[in-house]
Amino acid sequence: MVVTWSTMDNTNSSVVEYGIGGLVKRAKAVPIEFIDGGSKKRKIYIHKVKLSDLQPGRRYMYHCGSKWGWSSIYTFVPMQEGVNWSPQLAVFGDMGNINAQSLPRLQQETQRGMYDAILHVGDFAYDMNSDNAEVGDEFMRQIETIAAYARFRMPGNSDSMMYSFNMGPIHFISISTEYYYFLGYGIKEVVNQYYWLENDLKEATKPENRKVRPWIIVYGHRPMYCSNLNEDDCTFHETFVRVGLPFLNWFGLEDLFYNYGVDMEIWAHEHSYERLWPIYNYTVYNGSLEEPYRNPGAPVHIITGSAGCQEGRENFVPTMPEWSAFRSSDYGYARLQVFNSTHLYMEQISDDKEGEVIDRLWLIKDHHGPYPKR
């Protein structure tokens, strides 16, 4: 477990005091100076402290700071070891400082211990660097009420913009879709990410690895498909993330995910919720008419980008495409739980409807691996 915080002044030390029955243990590190790229060139000191000797499943109390001052006292539960447990996660994207409608409900649920981790699938604060990063500071203070209690993961929240991690029977892969849309910086990052991703998938799909962690879930910000009423890339047939760089069609990700048998792809960016039928190259490959999500012939795509921000909601095209299974413009977020090697459950919560579950999905896989050659 790593605890991260920031200060405006250099405290010369980063300290976390923690323990099960009291603040009896102490871990230390040295803060790192960060100079913001805005006009004020603000100095911000980043503190990262790793906690060790933790007992999985036990609730710890902790606070962070130094002799110059301490945070409030928070609690967390170390992640269980191994693969034989059932992780529960909250999943959402596109939450801003203004109109963060889902945040109070997420705060309550996180502090009640409902979630082992939070996946924020991109677009925060609007925008983190605005007003010399003061908007970002406010966003970090705002999400402290959930991030201080559960692991908070997002695209690019490690030393790299892409990374992977294991949680129980799941192998999660976080990618940056932004590389495909800011080509003024060159295509190097697109290429690097593609080959890193291919190597990660090769390792994750080795028989000995997929046997113990059968579920592979990828998440990134901009979706390959959507049926929203706008001109975002996902509304076009050949989206950059799906088929690759414009005109060249190099380094597209849909074939890669299909060939390595990725089970689920989670996206945001559209300020709405949409569940797709199992899909590859605009063709639906349901498991069967009665049970479309039992042993489907392609990955399942989920778009959950309606946590709430100043840009409001997204509407949909009037006629639902044949590959779209469910759509909603309600503010809300998703819950994800993997029960075992065969059963994954996901539901979408409507904050507009006071926490009502508006959509449910059971993804059942009797076997995991590459999909049929098409």
Automatic annotation (TrEMBL):
- Listed Pfam families: Metallophos (PF00149), Metallophos_C (PF14008), Pur_ac_phosph_N (PF16656)
Could you tell me which residue ranges the Purple acid phosphatase C-terminal domain spans?
298-360
The EC designation for this entry is 3.1.3.2
Task: Give the Gene3D superfamilies listed for this entry.
Answer: 3.60.21.10, Purple acid phosphatase-like, N-terminal
Q: Which GO terms describe its molecular function?
A: acid phosphatase activity; metal ion binding
Residue stretches making up the Purple acid phosphatase N-terminal domain: 1-76
Query: Source organism's superkingdom?
Result: Eukaryota
Signal peptide feature range: none
* InterPro entries to which the protein is assigned, alphabetical: Calcineurin-like_PHP (IPR004843), Metallo-depent_PP-like (IPR029052), MPP_PAP (IPR041792), PAPs_C (IPR025733), PAPs_N (IPR015914), Purple_acid_Pase-like_N (IPR008963)
Which controlled-vocabulary keywords does the entry list? Glycoprotein, Hydrolase, Signal
Residues forming the Calcineurin-like phosphoesterase domain are: 89-273
Describe the reaction catalysed, as an equation.
Answer: a phosphate monoester + H2O = an alcohol + phosphate
Q: Which SUPFAM superfamilies match?
A: Metallo-dependent phosphatases, Purple acid phosphatase, N-terminal domain
The record's similarity note reads:
Belongs to the metallophosphoesterase superfamily. Purple acid phosphatase family.
Q: What is this protein called?
A: Purple acid phosphatase
Q: Which organism is it from?
A: Ladona fulva
